[in-house]
Amino acid sequence: MDVFERFHTIIESLLADRRPRRIRVSPEEREALRMAARLRAARPGADEPRPEFLAELRRLINAELGAPAPSEPFSRRKLVMGWAASLIATVGITLGIDRRFLPHPPTQRRWPRVPLVPEEVGHWEPIARVEEVPIGAVRKFVAGALQGYLFNEDGQFRAISAACTDVGCTLVWRETQQDLWCPCHGAVFDAQGAMVEEAQGYEGFRLRTLPAIRVKVEDDAVYVWTVDPVERPTDTASA
Amino acid sequence: MYREEPEERPLEETGPLEPRDTLSLAQIYEMYMVQVYRFIYRHVGNREDAEDLTAQVFLKAIRSLDRARDEESIRGWLFQTARTTLADHWRQFYRTPIVSLEFFPRLRSQSARPSDEPLSGDEVQRILALLPEHYRRVLTLRFLEGLSIKETAAEMGITETNVKVLQFRALRRAAELAREQR
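Structure tokens for the assembled complex are given below, as produced in the milestone run.
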């Protein structure tokens, strides 16, 4: 890809208010990149923070500062739990799942939003034919360095990683419970990948949500974006 | 932990020594959430990075401030933390091969400068005004008006490929002008 195309990709991300792909750039290109960021920010109202973000940040700050005023944590927590519970209820109803939910105060930093398989190292790999995975079906797959579960939800395919975010054991899909269970420490994740039961010995730890794996359907086949388990040169992005 | 040292605060500032230190510290941070976010946004130009970096700045600042301080020094500390966080961000994610710096002696001295403040709206306008017409046009259409490549191409009567080439060259030239202006 030439420099113009690479920059075009970055600019498109900025214009969509999304994080640009990390690439290796020359000092000159970096200056151009910073100029792009500054111009993007110059659009009126562009630098207004989202209220949801400010609320999240406020919670983070309070948690970090330690115990807030005595009456605070209950109401705040109740608020968070109420919100989370209603969310789970909604999700639960749509998926037909009745399940426990363990709310954990979000005291940890948020995980950075790095793609599971970065653009420059990945490729599409076919994992199934469309007719092999009927609506409502869940199917385990192994593709390159990844293993995951493929879901067909009303004709839409999606996939999540099958590696437990605790210590990496392979999760087992439990058809009756419609969830993913870890044979090592018993953590349970719902069909969306969110932890719903803690791992034994890790009480109080909120495990990271199972990452989604990119999926596409082409010519009656389902593909996932994956990476080969081999070492490769790192500097693939330079022109 | 902040509440344990109320004697650090002058009496006339706090009034009676009520257990308000944690709260007031939270209030101070609250006052700067939007400011810090905007500051960072103007550097990175996208919401996802701006949100993550802003959260990082507050966590770092809170963790490294060992005791309650006055508002002014917290403010200074927040922005200083924001600057170092941004510097790390650019270093880590847009890794520049060290060796090529040798070929850009001018850039090397530039990048060592601490004053990397984002451009104000006026400065943006001033730099745009200094650009040749087609450069100014492509940047205005793309960034300030948010037109797509296709729309920009139609508006300017050139091909989409030409827009891609032009927008990069215009950015590069604008960056040079920004450096010269400082």
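The first helix of chain B runs from residue 11 to 14. The two ends of chain B are 44 Å apart (CA to CA). Further analysis is deferred to the final report.
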